[in-house]
Amino acid sequence: MPNFKTLDDIGDVTGKKVLVRVDLNVPMAGGAVADDTRIRAAMPTIRELSDKGAIVLLLAHFGRPKGAKNPTQSLSLVIDGVADVLGHSVMFIPDCIGEGAKAGVAVLAPGDVAVLENTRFHAGEEKNDPAFADALAEVGDLYVDDAFSAAHRAHGSTEGIAHRLPAYAGRAMEAELNALDAALGNPVHPVAAVVGGAKVSSKIDVLRNLVGRVDHLIIGGGMANTFLAARGVDVGKSLCEHDLVDTANAIFDAADAAGCTIHLPYDVVVAKEFAPNPPTRTVNVHEVAADEMILDVGPAAVEALADVLKNCRTLVWNGPLGAFETPPFDTATVALAKTAAALTREGSLISVAGGGDTVAALNHAGVAGDFTFVSTAGGAFLEWMEGKPLPGVDALKA
């Protein structure tokens, strides 16, 4: 169990000014919030603190204003979206530090919720400038971090402030950290990892870390082609990083030394063009023609992978097995995701997934709700899979 304080440790917050770091970096369309997933994720923490009589002050960034005020990246644009999800009015305070922020906070009553202006309007935020962190801390009495998606950045509102005020993990952060601990920190073995995606180059550190942590590493997506090429398979016109064959071989060697089994597809779905529903063939990997490209894992391999999952107790998933956004190359991802979901439902598998493509693929398969935990954090989830420290998490440790 990770060692950090949660809202259970916070004590009486009546009338206390609680700065809550949330993720309000939401997609917009026509001046309105187009997807409120991140807002909804913060609601358990916001409601709990508000119900207990805290003055809830939401800190967040919005876009990349590079330390300068920009009206198109003002958090005033998301106020209506936050109020809609919360179910009552939310005040906007036009700065996050200084006298303007303090004056805005001074008129709030216990239970009120306010959004402070974009932290990135100040250059000190991304530089984690001590003076900026001091100024943030002056606005509140306590600090709660509920934005795991920003935890890989050592910024003023994610890391610096946590050293200046009593700091706690919010409910979404707590759930994320507990899930990640169950997946790779202290998992129940055997552990399987599914790693997909287009290129090995973007996941080298992930693969290197995982071979020493998991019992079964299932490699899919375009990156599997590089590993097949390293095993002497002619992958035709498939996406393949031939210059990384030595890297792939080093990962094979590391897996052997660690007792980790790497699973590559032995039958694949190929086509001569990458387009929706082209003529396809399902072939053994050694039968790929020179003018064909591998675009999905074949049914026999998917069945074998399902058997691997049935013998595992923990699963970490990042990236699709095929070009899932283009039918019919979503077939393998959907099939294996449904197997993982069924095993999770029956209680034999703890399943944790994360990354943008992964969330989209699991939603497409209709099983995101059946996984034990699905992280919407992209960069932070990937850095956690790489075994890198996350500054926003480390700052919360007791």
Descriptive labels:
about 400 residues, alpha/beta, 6-stranded parallel beta sheet, 15 helices
What is this structure's SSE topology?
Layout: E1 17-21, E2 28-29, E3 32-33, H1 37-51, E4 55-59, H2 79-86, E5 91-93, H3 98-106, E6 113-116, H4 123-127, H5 130-137, E7 142-145, H6 156-160, E8 167-169, H7 171-185, E9 191-195, H8 204-211, E10 216-219, H9 223-230, H10 245-258, E11 261-263, E12 267-271, E13 280-284, E14 293-297, H11 299-310, E15 314-318, H12 331-345, E16 350-354, H13 356-365, E17 373-375, H14 379-385, H15 391-394
Parallel strand pairs: 1-4, 1-7, 4-6, 5-6, 7-8, 9-10, 9-15, 10-11, 15-16, 16-17
Antiparallel strand pairs: 2-3, 12-13, 12-14
Helix pairs in contact: 1-2, 8-10, 9-10, 11-12, 12-13
How would you characterize the overall build of this protein?
With 398 residues, this protein is of the alpha/beta class. The chain has two domains: 165 residues, Rossmann fold, CATH 3.40.50.1260; 199 residues, Phosphoglycerate kinase, N-terminal domain (Rossmann fold), CATH 3.40.50.1260. The protein contains 15 helices and 17 strands. The strands form four sheets. The chain has a six-stranded parallel beta sheet, with helices on both faces. It has a six-stranded parallel beta sheet with strand order 11-10-9-15-16-17, with helices on both faces. Strands 13-12-14 form a three-stranded antiparallel beta sheet. A hairpin with an 8-residue loop joins strand 12 and strand 13. The protein is elongated, with a radius of gyration of 23 Å. The protein starts with 16 loop residues before the first strand and ends with a helix. The model has no long low-confidence stretch (mean pLDDT 95).
